[in-house]
Design goal:
The protein is an alpha/beta fold and 182 residues long. 48% of the residues lie in helices and 13% in strands.
Length: 182
């Protein structure tokens, strides 16, 4: 078991070391200037998106998860962060297209820069990890399906938030926004 844990950690370290810093900075800038932030992903990418949205809320951002009952309509000046390893998930392409129609910006977190979503996005944060598709440009992994992508997305987006809030909220301020009915 220890060797599996070590291998997974090494794989994730390798992916993280290959993330383009300029793309991460671009996402950080978009977060700072967006009127409101909307996050969407399907399946496990959606779970990573919800974790990201929660961290953004802790950081004081006005953020919503697409598909939740309290999510308002999107408008000009808003930012949709779409998370899709393949960049071609049908529902996400549809939501991103609609976001563009209403004047919102779309920022894609993906492994596939040549995807349908990439073509309509205003920014891309490439995560050079393996997905369930195992395209030739994806790294080798011992992990099944898109585990490597999901884990990497979680860590990269947490790092983006930390960098975005570097001169902002303290842990104490963020703790005040943390759930207290638990």
């Amino acid at each position: 078991m220890k060797s599996i844990i070590t291998t997974v950690a090494e794989e994730i370290s390798e992916v993280l070391s290959n993330v383009n810093e300029e793309e991460a900075i671009h996402l950080s800038q978009q977060l700072k200037t967006a009127k409101r932030i909307f996050v969407y992903g399907e399946g496990r990418s959606g779970l990573m998106g919800k974790a990201f949205a929660m961290r953004l809320m802790h950081g004081g951002f006005q953020v919503y998860v697409i598909g939740e009952t309290i999510t308002p309509s999107m408008d000009e000046g808003d930012l949709l962060i779409a998370i899709s390893g393949s960049g071609s998930t049908g529902a996400i392409v549809q939501f991103a297209s609609k976001a563009k129609e209403v004047g919102a910006s779309v920022f894609l977190v993906t492994t596939n820069r040549e995807s349908k979503l990439a073509a309509i996005s205003d920014g891309i944060l490439g995560i050079p990890a393996a997905t369930k598709y195992r395209r030739t440009e994806e790294p080798e992994t011992i992990q099944p399906l898109g585990n490597q992508f999901d884990q990497s997305v979680h860590l990269v987006l947490d790092a983006v938030i930390i960098g975005t809030l570097e001169d902002g909220d303290t842990n104490e301020a963020m703790t005040k926004r943390h759930a207290n009915i638990e």
